[in-house]
């Protein structure tokens, strides 16, 4: 009977060992599945992020233009405005100086306190 008990104990210990191995293997499989799911989720998140970033860039380009485009437009507008100003100066420079040359000071009059007060007369 003692050998029968020993044999029963040995069987129980072996069964317990197999059960522990199965539990350990199940835990490893679970850990692998969790790791795989995490990697898949990370890849899916990155794909979604890239897609949304692309959509945003397309929206921005369509509605606002790129920052480089905006800066280039500002530069072009500034250059055009400066050219207009330079053209106006060039056109009106002669008229300005010709009007200035026909005005000369008349310093023959003195103010009531003896100070010099210039009066301008137009020479035609």
Automatic annotation (TrEMBL):
Compositional bias of kind Basic and acidic residues: 103-124
Keywords: Coiled coil, Hydrogen ion transport, Ion transport, Transport
BP-aspect Gene Ontology terms: synaptic vesicle lumen acidification
Top-rank taxon: Eukaryota
Any coiled-coil regions, as ranges: 9-58
GO molecular function, one term: ATP hydrolysis activity
Annotated segments matching region Disordered: 100-124
InterPro entries: V-ATPase_G
Pfam families: V-ATPase_G
The keyword DNA repair appears for this protein: no
Protein's UniProt keywords contain DNA repair: no
GO cellular component, one term: presynapse
PANTHER family on file: V-TYPE PROTON ATPASE SUBUNIT G, VACUOLAR ATP SYNTHASE SUBUNIT G
Family designation: Belongs to the V-ATPase G subunit family.
Function: Subunit of the V1 complex of vacuolar(H+)-ATPase (V-ATPase), a multisubunit enzyme composed of a peripheral complex (V1) that hydrolyzes ATP and a membrane integral complex (V0) that translocates protons. V-ATPase is responsible for acidifying and maintaining the pH of intracellular compartments and in some cell types, is targeted to the plasma membrane, where it is responsible for acidifying the extracellular environment.
UniProt subunit comment: V-ATPase is a heteromultimeric enzyme made up of two complexes: the ATP-hydrolytic V1 complex and the proton translocation V0 complex.
UniProt protein name: V-type proton ATPase subunit G
